[in-house]
Amino acid sequence: MALEEKREKRPPVTPMMIEEEAALRNGSRGLPPGPWAEAAGPRPRTTERHIAVHKRLVLGFAVSILALLAVTMIAVLLSVRFEECGAAADGPPRAGGNGSLSGVARQPHGAGQPPGRPEEDARGGEAAEEEEEEEEEEEWQRRRELPPWARPRLPRHLRPLHYNLMLTAFMENFTFSGEVNVQLEVRNASRYIVLHAHRMHIEAVRVAEDKLAGGVRVARTFFYPQTQVFVVVLNRSLEVQKSYNLKIIYNALIENELLGFFRSSYVLHGERRFLGVTQFSPTHARKAFPCFDEPIYKATFKISIRHQATYLSLSNMPVETSVFEEDGWVTDHFSQTPLMSTYYLAWAVCNFTYRETVTKSGVVVRLYARPDAIRRGSGDYALNITRRLIEFYEDYFKVPYSLPKLDLLAVPKHPYAAMENWGLSVFVEQRILLDPSISSILYLLDVTMVIVHELCHQWFGDLVTPVWWEDVWLKEGFAHYFEFVGTDYLYPGWNMEKQRFLTDVLHEVMLLDGLASSHPVSQEVQQASDIDRVFDWIAYKKGAALIRMLAGFMGHSVFQMGLQDYLTIHKYGSAARNDLWNTLSKALKRVGKSVNIQEVMDQWTLQMGYPVITILGNETTDNIIVISQERFVYDSDTKPKDPARGDNSYLWQIPLTIAVGNTSHISSEAIIWVSNKSEHHRIPALEEASWLLGNINQTGYFRVNYDIRNWKLLINQLTRNHEVISVSNRAGLIDDAFNLARAGYLPQNIPLEIMRYLSEEKDFLPWHAASRALYPLDKLLDRTENYNIFNEYILRQVASMYLKLGWPTNNLNKSLVQASYQHEELRREVIMLACSFGNKHCHQQAATLISDWISSNRNRIPLNVRDIVYCTGVSLMDEDVWEFIWMKFHSTTAVSEKKILLEALTCSDDRNLLNRLLNLSLNSEVVLDQDAIDVIIHVARNPHGRDLAWKFFREKWKILNARYGEALFMNSKLVSGVTEFLNTEGELRELKNFIKSYEGGAAVSFSRAVETVEANVRWQRLYKEELFQWLRKSLTQ
Ligand SMILES: [Zn+2]
Q: Does 67 score more than 60 pLDDT?
């Protein structure tokens, strides 16, 4: 499963003009839709600058407003229709019903909100049953055991072998009915069948001994909503080693939310069309059919879907036969699946069209999407790279893709970026459709990496499945790591694994994992409600960073061999992390190395956080250095989450690589395993002027600190000849220095001094690292009165490179993307910094480009900087530009363009417009559910909107929590996005008061939010003045 990536969100743009025009007013720094999208500072009024544009605008807008009115009316009409359909499907809640199959006792209520059709209420014999129930409960109490249905995990006495699932989808009222037949193997005799079922109405239940006529009598059945299970109590025990068939007939809603079997819609030729699609991971298959919904219960599935012939249906396997009926209905019977878990089972009912391709090994790959997107060819890029990637993985893993086909389905609405259902992977349109004529490199990168990720899961996750959710990081960490390896295969010059991995994964997750409220990457989970919690950036990014460190110290070819063994041994089965460690240890042994991988990795996966290594070299003699480790935390005042163990008790076995350098040369690296608090090591060839560098190429998951003398030597080296130090270490030094300073391990001036060498830096990565590391610092300062000093300092560091690189002149084409990724990304990064911090030329350029677009109605803005230009324009220019962008947002059909237009609207410094946007964001007809969160977060990043977004969030919390609460990842993204840059005592109080008064949900996110804001406030108190003092001095020198 791919979460919404934050990759593109680190771009700074904080347009701030240096005060010199009379027509300045206090205002903003507008920003591109990134984290940088804002900041405070004076900005130009529109008086002289855009007069010529203005007249044309007036005329143009008269027309556009009319168009907008028309669009709005259509939207309103459609929404009315949509609501009618929704209401029809919802129906009144039902009480228990009664079934009529033989052997069936009382029928249960649907758990949660019971859907289905009205039934008669048959209450015969209830008194007797209640008595029986009470007796049973007492019996369990006497035995001091929880009854099997009340335990957090399913009881182990039954195992599903095969499911026959027949569904009928009623798209006209968004309901479906189903009949499931589960073949069960009995491991221990029991009278109870306990399986998952949630939010459905069960009509009938029958149990029969396999292959024999005659049922086993069902005494009673009931739902137990606390554990989301359905219980069948039998009159006699099922016998060990016999196999039984359980048949359940049920019905449920095709929900208007994002989980289970849910619906969404799109408009084609002015007509709204609906589709139904599933999202079962991690615990939502139980909303679509009664099943043993834990990954360990692998079974085979044979699915049939009956639907109106105007739709088509898809599932994991290809259709075997279709049976048409005279009344316009058709039943598709799909081939049987191999052994698999429920969470990546899938189906869809839609009227999409497709294009297809075939891999060398004969796998048929199809991309299904709305017909207009298919016609435009928006899916062709994804289709093409999917074919190549299947070939890549088959070669890398030496295990063929296991199914005859793979369908990629592009849907308008989805809770995640994508989901790796075996053979039928589902993607939100913005993460798979791509129109090469209007997509930036960044967008192309996002699409590419999401596809690489989901394809990796066809092996890691689908073919070999983690035993339980505590190890979800295994599958997600691998898929995230392979995003970089797989993209390197497609674009060999991009060095994703060696370079961009650092900024986008390592640096990113160390921000999170440096909080005392973090958690181990392997975390225990029991309740269904907790399982969503494990899908967070710690699982994905820390998982990937640990895997990369492991590959680093094992050596890549041995690592690859180990993975091949692991997949071959466990295919079609399940595996836990120890299975992986054992296989990898064996692979190492085969090449004559002996490392107990389990022992090393347990420290990294079972402990939260990461170490900071301190290397002290200057006060020792005989080339002895002192290496110590401690847990890195941003706010050392925070009490440890686990009071039983202070931060002092954290220890890791750290594969520290180290090298010695002098003015023109760096030694080859040596590896030192550091496992104690403090160790002495002898380093040969350590001379007076030589410096030490740790964590070579940043392959390790930790930070490195040095004595000040060594930092100064490194800064000198960077200034005189930075190329002696590798690109990845240059980026690493920048990130470590900024974060060590933020946490108080290092004086505030060191990172700013390091930055000075950037005027000579021609590589993208160090600039990118600097830009990202500056971002939180910028947010800490952007509402302070001395902000200008900081702003001025950054502008000076950027100015010469901005001049050198200039603006892109032409649009990118495919071959250009391949050839000049590094150069174009560098230029983009520098333009973003320049525009964010108010480089005058950058502002003028952006304004000119926007004016040209408005007056000519032709968008000639270079693709790779469009987001920066839109945001800068909205921030600097008057309200007409906002309206223009708003209109374009409505009229464009290209998903990539729509997204950056929407984000640009958050860059305004007009609080009325920001408020208007916030209110519109909750209207699903205007802003897609999954995009509304981005709107709110981006407004919070804008210093002019931070308090608005924060207020809006508190006022609308109930609505937001109801909408996103179940997809916990979205909720936590929202909570952290809105709160992470609050940094005053007052805001901290507001946050704490709000948490006291709110009801339920997202507790983990809120405790993280409090810690983050406390750390912000603490930094302001302790270090802000130190930083400004140094800046003042530096600027006058
Ligand atoms: Zn994933």
A: no
